[in-house]
Amino acid sequence: MIGIKIRGTLVTMIYKKTLELNTVMLNNFSIGEIINFISTDTSNLVNACNSFHSMWSVPFQLVIVLYLLYQQLGIAFLSGVFVSILLIPVNKIITSNIGKLTEKLMKEKDKRVRLMSEIIKGIRVIKFHVWEKYFIDKVSDYRKGEVKNLKKRKYLDALCVYFWATTPVTISMLTFSTYIFLGGQLTASKVFTSMALLHMLITPLNAFPWILNGVTEAWVSVKRIQRLIEVDDLQLQSYYSLMPVQYGKTFDNAVSLTKCSFNWGLRSFQLKNINFSVAKGSFVGIVGPVGSGKSTLLAGILAEINKEEGIIASSNMRDGFAFVAQTPWIQKGTIKDNILFGQNFSLEKYKTVIKSCGLVKDLQEFSRGDLTLIGEAGVTLSGGQKARLALARAVYQNKFMYLMDDIFAAVDINVAQHLYTHCINGLLKDKTRIICTHNSQFLLSADWVLIMNNGTIVNQGRPFEVLNDYDVKTVDVKFDEANNSSYLTMDDWTPIKESEVINDLNDREDQEEGVINLSVYKQYWKSVGDVIVYLLFFAIVIMQGTRNISDLWLSHWVNEMKNQHDDNAIEDFKVIQDENNEYLYTYTLIGMINSVATFFRAFIFAYGGIKACKKIHDCLLASVMSVKTTFFDINPLGRILNRFSSDINIIDDSLPFILNIFIAQFFHVIGTVGSIIYSIPWALIIAVFLTPLYYKLQIRYRNSSRELRRISTVALSPLYNHINESLQGLSTIRAFRAVSRFERENEDNLENYLKADFSSQLAFLWFNFRLRIMGLTMLFFISLISVFIHQWNLTNAGYLGLSLTYALALTNLLGGLVNAIAATECDMISLERVFSYIDNLENETDVEDSVSPPFAWPTNGIIQFSNVFLKYRHDCSMSLNGVSFETTSSEKIGVIGRTGAGKSSLLVALYKMCDISSGAIFIDAVNLSKISSRQIRNRLCIIPQDPFLFDGTIRENIDPFKEYMDSNIWSALQRCHLAATVKRLGGLGCYIGENINLSVGEKQLLCLVRAILKNSKVICVDEATANVDEMTDRKIQETIRTAFKHSTVITIAHRIRTVMDSDRILVMDNGKVVEFESPNVLLENKNSYFYNLIQQEFK
């Protein structure tokens, strides 16, 4: 119960702490670290509860047992005790080293889990670039460091196991030898009473290193968690000030910044001398080149970064802000849940928000409407849909102030104008609005505009005062709603009722039932290796056999000496001594064989466990890295990460440990019961009666325990997923002042897990009580039989004493065996979950008759789609609906269409990220279905919509396989206008991690650098310049034209300017090709979709 309370308190405390730290403070801790705090470190502290209890109980037991031993054997007992005491400092040295290795191990584990989190989030880009091998190697390198420390720790554990297993025989041997040398005579009463006491002594002495180990691991975990807890919380009261008062009247401003300076930490990008005020209900625009500090300014207003100096005054700090981030943060769940975001449902308000955010047509196309389940981070939505969904969530919250970061970047001009008219200047017209954007035409009606560059406000004022091309834009931009109406209707729309919808998205995790499949044990056996398993069983049989034989030999020795003394009462002392020595030599030899067998058993098991965990992790990693991308659409990051954190941790550490105990206990029980029956054959009658009862009892307990463990393991995934999701959207959660709701949701998820854990403990107590009743029953009957057979001289005193000694220990042995079986089965569930990923995931299988593409393919870059149909999952509608078109050699194709029209799906089909339902795709007349996906992706190049950077140097991010010279990389950086930024950061060797200080636009430009270096014959550009300013966009387009002059380039864009100089324009709508002609031909047709877009963006 205490353990459950500790776990609940720690998880809640860690989660609350992460919600109270701003982005800069939290950047000191990776997501992997925080997940490990909640999983591994919390488990270490919970497991240490018993160790803390034993710290006082073990010394108390020792004192009592030592006194009783002294009563039996006099000072001879000190020899055995002396050896045990000598082992205490040895065990202390071992456990202290185990503690140090555990600390190193956890650091390596944190690095690996953090990297896996990055990989899962960026898996699409990794597959596009065929970087699977690089990341597998990188994870393997981290894993090697982890396994290196694990190996050392396991061998030290093996040494502890060796001492624990050999101590009983060693202490018995030394104690009785000393007693004989001091002139004592062994009798059955002395031997077996002493043996019982020595067994009572051995348990606490051997438990002591494990107790110290548990306490040491807990202390390491406490220090790790303490590092997070000791970080100062974000104090909003000290960060914000009250609105200043002048002449007894408060300024009527929503927010005011006076002489403010902000930074992202030491030696990072800074904002300096920021001065501006925003009047209530006004519309303020922020513009500036890439990396000028626009997003950082919003972060400063939201208290997400460090404020060095200055005053920020807010008129309504308690209510918070409605924040729409540049990279939309979307929760796993339905579209409706994302929009409501914890607010009460109001039908009219909800419909108004849906319409103003341009989501009506999207929801009409979804078969389940607003009750459509979307994957984690909105992976099942297009970029524009995610942007509008995040905006709808903000609008529904009805806050007094709205901070929006580049909301027009991911949508086409039609949608952008709709949002501008119906949302920004419509539904939100009375709200305070601050918008960062590169599309300055949407700031013409703003009340105030800030121009930023290099971390400062270089100019501010009304639009006509500060926007250089204001006059041109007022003429060019025609907000023609007549053209708009055909696309974004404001017709009445009604949500679908929840009772009418059945969602198929994999919202619940698959859970096995019943007994662990025998194949799981076989696979683990195979992972360990046949030779190691056979050697292990051989060593265990020798170990347990010699242990029981030594006790039987001792019984025989005592009995023979008693019979000889009874026959010849007057016997020379020297003769007796010689006979004792002969028996003692044999007893010692048996003990030595036992010691050698125990040593080999401990180290063979450690080696086998390490070998298995390495192989299993490598197979899991390979399986996840080769799985189809649709797997990541329906499985949240927390669920997948759970396999690589908690489950792998159990397979590494807990499973080999508990399996070792189980096998040892199993053979110990067999040896004990066999020795009792050998000594007292009548005990077989009791065994026959109690065995079926024991069997039924343990089956019932194990079934319950196993299913409860499965429930608790599955309940962990929503907990981890919620925590991970919260960490991704912390700035949004805090801005909306939704922290308390997320804390409640975390507590609900935690409670579901703790209920299963508590039930599991109750089941154990239920079983333990009944087991003790059975043990006492067996002891009672054996004692009763012993009285009668001793009275009738049916057996000798030595065997009788041995049977009673074994019977005393049998209750604990049986309990230990079942607990070990149950614990092994519970840990095997983690193995079962991992093997389900290894064996059952649908990998990206290449056709059996796949052929190698021609040499230097593609040479012309002619792409042909022939009646292509594509759907991402069986429950989805068609994303491509009979698409057919053909390019010419080195042609530049611009792809446009409303968000969700199927533009990105063209690239998904081209790169074989998802199998097409029907049709065919050709490049240079080669059917892509005949070529492996890896070869296709290797020959093509893409600049993806969502930029992906991983922990590593800038050089590694650009060129992970080290294929290009530094001079080539600098040249590419220069062409992408990033050379100055990279030099400012410290050059190509600069390490960029989670606290990277690059804007989204700069990240997109780094992705462009990769493409320029690769220079493939076919280049795909998916909204690569959506987050850069117009001037940079023009420069980038010029770079693309010159760098990819001889390549076929497919450019997906929302800005018409971006694709105006394309050879042909491909217009998509509802997964179909609507128009495909040169821009000039399409402009001649005034009814064309393209013509309408041009009318809205150009004069």
Automatic annotation (TrEMBL):
Domain ABC transporter: 255-479, 863-1095
EC code(s) of this entry: 7.6.2.2
Key word Cell division present: no
Reaction(s) catalysed (UniProt annotation): ATP + H2O + xenobioticSide 1 = ADP + phosphate + xenobioticSide 2
Protein's membrane topology: Multi-pass membrane protein
Enzyme superclass (EC): translocase
Cross-referenced SUPFAM superfamilies: ABC transporter transmembrane region, P-loop containing nucleoside triphosphate hydrolases
Segments traversing the membrane: 64-88, 159-182, 194-215, 531-549, 584-607, 676-695, 773-792, 804-823
CDD domains associated with the record: ABC_6TM_MRP7_D1_like, ABC_6TM_MRP7_D2_like, ABCC_MRP_domain1, ABCC_MRP_domain2
Keyword entries, A-Z: ATP-binding, Membrane, Nucleotide-binding, Repeat, Translocase, Transmembrane, Transmembrane helix, Transport
Pfam families with a match to the protein in the record: ABC_membrane, ABC_tran
Residue ranges constituting the ABC transmembrane type-1 domain according to the UniProt record: 1-217, 535-823
InterPro entries noted in UniProt: AAA+_ATPase, ABC1_TM_dom, ABC1_TM_sf, ABC_transporter-like_ATP-bd, ABC_transporter-like_CS, ABC_transporter_C-like, P-loop_NTPase
Location of this chain's protein in the cell: Membrane
Annotated SMART domains: AAA (SM00382)
GO molecular function, one term: ABC-type xenobiotic transporter activity
Transport listed as a keyword: yes
Cellular component aspect of the GO annotation: membrane
PANTHER family: ATP-BINDING CASSETTE SUB-FAMILY C, ATP-BINDING CASSETTE SUB-FAMILY C MEMBER 10
Family in the record: Belongs to the ABC transporter superfamily. ABCC family. Conjugate transporter (TC 3.A.1.208) subfamily.
Protein's name according to its UniProt entry: ABC-type xenobiotic transporter
Organism: Melanaphis sacchari
Gene designation per UniProt: ABCC10_3
